[in-house]
Task: inverse folding
């Protein structure tokens, strides 16, 4: 059935204008003034509303075996929540443990998503070891449509790689035209500092950020980018949280190292005092890298304005407070790391970014959609509104007023890190390839309709 979005104000990363959008099949086929609806078309009246390209979250965890437990969402619950919040494409971290081969991991993650996701999806392929089988398997995975890898400098024993593995992964990525996304924290420093804190009886959630201060992250960034400089690989720092790490990334960029930077909605809006809340409440806010001193927030917003920070993700990693976060009640190193926010990213960016004047509307679209599509070989199929693009559209009502609460969220987790936060504006209609998949915060789409997005390598 054709879809017509009428009377809206289209906003892309570079343009803003009034026009109707007509979609046939799964794509946008006409953008014009005063398009009339053919019989049988679904018509959405977007008068007084903004129309954005579907948002892309470049860093989520839906299926995540981690720290002795599993993240709570499935592709069914996670994609519903994503769509309700205006995110129409997910890029998930495929994270096999070091015991598993890459290919087995890729197949496992695919099996979690195919036939279950309501929105489109792809993966950053986690390289969590590099043995004699790895290169062949990674080549196979790239041929199957993956054009980005993920490596962890932290979490040794689970996902973390050593320097030989890091070098080989980057060298292969350079050959294949694959961009390498990286979690940058120096694992040795984390382990030493954690042991010291625990030995001193400091076990509460507020110690988590003491165990991995900004220099631990900056060292990780510098470390990765030294290897990137020597191999020539293109890199992408995930969840960058602080000034020190940004300075290390920008210094490398100045030297000609190919590096892009992602920050998270959590780092832009929350600070480390949340993780220091009493009665173990702080555990809700434990993630890695940790929430930082509030002074870093303005630096990250400025980085977005200046185009130095390229994207805003969620690193959605939902663990229940009641029976999962509590695993670290007497030892902060055992609190499953992660702060869920998949459903809230766009509403928060709009309310606390655009409405406060920290970023403009084009920057919002750029960092939450267009840049992601460009970096990860999805553009212009995704990430913009133009003829021939997938009809992934977000009609956004700037007049909506509401409050975030775990009671009303679709994410399958028992708390919200943004409980009680006021929201000004939300998606009223969200489409995936021409089908209306969410209305007014509620899912209306089709489970299993989400496609795996095959992506081509690019030579950066
Ligand atoms: O704390 C976090 N970030 N949890 C998810 C795993 C990761 O490091 O991305
Ligand atoms: Zn990470
Ligand atoms: Zn992550």
Result:
């Amino acid at each position: 059935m054709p879809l017509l979005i009428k009377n809206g104000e289209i906003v892309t990363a570079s343009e803003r204008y009034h026009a109707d959008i007509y979609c046939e099949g799964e794509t946008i086929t006409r953008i014009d003034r005063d398009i009339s609806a053919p019989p049988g078309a679904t018509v959405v009246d977007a008068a007084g509303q903004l129309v954005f390209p579907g948002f892309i979250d470049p860093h989520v965890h839906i299926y995540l075996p981690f720290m002795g437990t599993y993240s709570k969402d499935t592709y069914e619950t996670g994609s519903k929540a994503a769509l309700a919040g205006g995110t129409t494409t997910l890029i998930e971290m495929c994270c096999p443990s070091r015991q598993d081969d890459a290919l087995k991991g890729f197949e496992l993650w695919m099996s979690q998503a195919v036939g279950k996701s309501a929105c489109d999806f792809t993966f950053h392929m986690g390289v969590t070891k590099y043995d004699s089988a790895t290169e062949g398997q990674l080549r196979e995975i790239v041929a199957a449509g993956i054009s980005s890898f993920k490596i962890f400098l932290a979490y040794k024993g689970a996902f973390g790689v050593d320097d030989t593995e890091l070098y080989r992964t980057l060298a292969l990525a350079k050959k294949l035209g694959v961009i390498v996304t990286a979690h940058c924290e120096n694992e040795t420093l984390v382990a030493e500092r954690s042991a010291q804190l625990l030995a001193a009886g400091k076990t509460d959630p507020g110690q988590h950020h003491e165990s991995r201060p900004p220099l631990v992250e900056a060292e990780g960034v510098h470390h990765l980018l030294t290897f990137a400089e020597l191999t020539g690989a293109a890199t992408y720092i995930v969840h960058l949280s602080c000034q020190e790490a940004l300075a290390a990334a920008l210094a490398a960029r100045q030297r000609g190292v190919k590096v892009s930077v992602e920050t998270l909605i959590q780092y832009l809006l929350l600070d480390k005092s949340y993780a220091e809340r009493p009665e173990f409440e702080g555990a809700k806010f434990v993630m890695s890298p940790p929430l930082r001193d509030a002074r870093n927030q303005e630096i990250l917003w400025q980085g977005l304005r200046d185009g130095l920070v390229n994207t805003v993700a969620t690193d959605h990693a939902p663990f229940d407070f009641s029976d999962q976060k509590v695993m670290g009640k007497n030892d902060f190193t055992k609190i499953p790391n992660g702060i869920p926010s998949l459903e809230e990213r766009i509403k928060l960016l709009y309310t606390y970014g655009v409405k406060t004047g920290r970023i403009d509307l084009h920057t919002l679209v750029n960092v939450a959609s267009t840049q992601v599509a460009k970096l990860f070989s999805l553009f212009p199929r995704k990430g913009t509104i133009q003829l021939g693009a997938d009809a992934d559209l977000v009609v956004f009502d700037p007049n909506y007023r509401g409050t975030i609460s775990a009671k009303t969220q679709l994410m399958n987790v028992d708390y919200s890190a943004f409980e009680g936060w006021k929201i000004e504006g939300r998606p009223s209609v969200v489409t995936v390839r021409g089908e209306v998949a969410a209305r007014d915060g509620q899912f209306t789409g089709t489970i299993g309709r989400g496609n795996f997005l095959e992506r081509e390598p690019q030579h950066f």
